[in-house]
Design goal:
alpha+beta, SH3 type barrels, five-stranded antiparallel β-sheet, three-stranded antiparallel β-sheet, 8 helices, 10 strands, 11% strand, metal-binding, Znf_FYVE_PHD, PWWP_dom
Length: 347
């Protein structure tokens, strides 16, 4: 089996949409390669006279980056329309949205007017099936029949806003959010955080480096509420124990051990770096440090069990041999005693 490789990093922001980038990186293999949904039955969008959609171009989450223009839908039942928006870094999301984070999902800020009063934008957490690139699906998704309950006028405004941004900036609008891009770089290098920041001297999250509300973070984990939740869900690198985010994750390698879903930073494990640097078509299997340790412990336990079993077998064999010798000794003694008895002399 070939290792699952995500050739994405915050430093180079290489795209993984199926084509090679200028630096020679190719789309991730297996689970991370770009895929096109080929659902024979088109998807139903909108319960009230909804329109049928053709198959959508939906790459894996590793193919997106912060500030990408996207389409996203709320809910998992498939009866809500795809809405234009921007994939954001979770650090940009309001605290209430951050608290609702879900593993294996990205945070999307919808364009257009909010459906709530006193709120400028709406947000959602979207998984791989609820997300689609804006440009690749513009033709099909802009033609959706939006039911009245889903606010067709608001959808039209959102689409116009997204189209204008796409015409000016292309598929990614990071140029409009330079401060957030700079913060992403600080996440990659915690030493790059501004020392003049009044909060810089206080306790920060061990994963995302945002200031903590209290010393020690959530339950003494050293993490903010968001990272503590994602860590509990298993979305962290087992080598450095830091939570990673889909919007700004560095280069990572997926563990191929059966049942293991961990991804490891290439910079955290020498073996992971070897896999990441290997040619894309090279068939390499990778096991994360946890699985390697588990396998080593299993080997050690197997060796100990084998030694114990061998020793037990040897003791059992020695005991049987001793019992045979003892039985033979007793038989010899009985024979000797019988030959010396008066009855034996008369015989």
């Amino acid at each position: 089996a070939s290792a699952r490789r995500a050739r994405r990093s915050c430093a180079d922001r290489s795209r993984a949409r199926g084509e090679s980038d200028p630096e020679g990186r190719r789309a991730p293999t297996t689970m991370q390669r770009t895929k096109i949904e080929e659902d024979a039955s088109a998807r139903d969008v909108g319960a009230e006279g909804g329109s049928l959609l053709p198959p959508l171009a939906q790459p894996t989450l590793f193919s997106y980056r912060a500030n990408d223009l996207v389409w996203a839908r709320t809910g998992t039942r498939g009866n809500e329309p795809f809405w234009p928006g921007r994939m954001i870094d979770v650090l940009e999301a309001p605290e209430g949205v951050r608290r609702d984070c879900a593993p294996n999902s990205v945070c999307v800020q919808f364009y257009g007017p909010s459906q709530r009063k006193n709120t400028e934008r709406d947000y959602c957490w979207a998984n791989e099936t609820q997300l689609a690139p804006f440009a690749a699906n513009l033709t099909s998704l802009s033609m959706q029949s939006i039911p009245k309950r889903a606010r067709p006028t608001a959808f039209k405004e959102a689409l116009e806003e997204a189209r204008a941004l796409f015409a000016t900036h292309g598929e990614n609008v990071s140029a409009l959010h330079p401060n957030l891009a700079a913060f992403d770089d600080a996440e990659d290098d915690p030493d790059a955080i501004d020392p003049d920041d009044p909060d810089a001297g206080g306790p920060t999250c061990s994963s995302c480096y945002v200031p903590l509300d209290k010393e020690g973070g959530v339950k003494g984990t050293g993490r903010c509420a968001l990272c503590a939740k994602l860590h509990k869900e298993g979305q962290f690198c087992p080598a450095c124990d830091k939570v990673w985010q889909w919007a700004n994750c560095p280069a990572m390698v997926g563990c191929d051990a059966p049942g293991c879903e961990f991804w490891v930073h290439a910079s955290c494990d020498a073996r992971a770096k070897e896999v990441m640097d290997a040619p894309e078509n090279e068939d390499i299997e990778y096991h994360c440090p946890r699985c390697v340790d588990k396998a080593e412990r299993a080997k050690e336990i197997a060796v100990v069990k084998a030694v114990v079993a061998t020793e037990k077998k040897a003791r059992k064999k020695a005991l049987k041999l001793a019992e045979k010798k003892e039985a033979a000794k007793k038989a010899t003694a009985a024979t000797a005693k019988k030959s010396k008895s008066p009855a034996g002399d008369r015989g």
